[in-house]
Amino acid sequence: MNNNKRLINIISNRNYESRKTKLRLMEELEKYGFTCTEDYNKNAELNICIGGDGAFLRSIHRNKFPSIPFVGINTGHLGFFQEIAPDNIDDFVKRYSNKEYDIEEIFLLNAEVCTKKKCFTLTAINEFVIKGIKSKVVHLTMYIDGNHLQKFSGDGIIISTPAGSTAYNFSSGGSIVYPSIKCLQITPLSPISSKAFRSLPTSTIVPGDLSISVKPEFRYENSILVVNDGMEFRYDDIIDITLKMSNKKVFKLNFSKNSYWENLKNKFL
Questions:
Q1: pLDDT of 96-140, one tens digit each?
Q2: pTM of the entire predicted model
Q3: Is pLDDT of 208 > 90?
Q4: Domain of residue 154, residue span
């Protein structure tokens, strides 16, 4: 095997537009001397994900949050992560070949879900959601670095990263947070205020070096559904969920210092 090959992983979903875009992309990359592989290679210098935001998130999870940078070509709907349009492939390959880009860090979120018997660790790119199964109301006690914050009652809560602030968090009334700000955001889902439970009605932003602890009321320890970047998990006898920023990061190519604001405007306004 030629060790001088510049390998690029091509990760694509299977819809028609993605498959067509993949063939065109591979042809263009090979013109510039790159070698493309559809079998994930840990020695590659770049991951190119073709599809929508869901495909982008799945590709990072499936490949265990690699240090190889990602860039996305949008053949989906919103495509907030997928900044390159299929029509701009030629320009993208040229600029990449000329190293006309920066590498942006994406902060990750770790959730340790502890039951009466065992603890499980999950990692999220966008958000971690704690809610009731079958749309039940949940009752949760929350602490920030051991300090009691609230007794929450409602549909659930979202804990999002800066990258995830424009996803489920934003559609649920949370704030948009610039990606380089190291913090976590807690956003309530249909909060209820009563004499027993005093739930914050708006999102709360906390520094990234603090931990968030969520304890279900004992009667509801088997009624909790946890959702990690859209993937659902069920655990019996949950006693505590601790959330904090991960030591891991993933990396994404950025071709313009203004791309975030341009993307925000184009996708949401």
A1: 999 999 999 999 999 999 999 999 999 999 999 999 988 889 999
A2: 0.91
A3: yes
A4: 108-248
In a domain, 258, yes or no: no
Examine the domain organization and report whether 37 and 144 are in the same domain: no
CA-closest candidate to residue 50, choices 27, 74, 28: 74
Non-local (6+) Cβ contacts of 163 within 8 A are 81, 106, 107, 125, 126, 179
Partnered with residue 98 across adjacent β-strands are: none
Residue 127 lies in a domain: yes
**CA nearest 237: which of 100, 104, 120?**
120
Residues recognised as catalytic: 53
Please say which residue of 100, 131, 156 terminates a domain. Answer: 100
Domain boundary among 42, 68, 100: 100
**Taking 50 as the threshold, does the pLDDT of residue 1 lie above it?**
no
Residue 18: what are its φ and ψ, rounded to 5°?
Answer: -65, -45
Longest CA pairwise span in the chain (Å): 70
Q: Are 84 and 73 in contact (CB under 8 A)?
A: yes
* CATH code (residue 224): 2.60.200.30
pLDDT confidence of residue 212: 98
CA 180 vs. chain centroid, Å, equals 14
Are the C-beta atoms of residues 132 and 156 closer than 8 Å to each other? yes
pLDDT score of 134: 84
Instruction: Give the chain's domain count.
Output: 2
Residue whose entry in the numeric block shows the structure tokens 């190119």? 48
Are β-strands 212-216 and 138-144 bridged in parallel, bridged antiparallel, or unpaired?
A: antiparallel
What's the rounded mean pLDDT across residues 241-246? 97
Amino acid identity for residue 66 in this structure = P
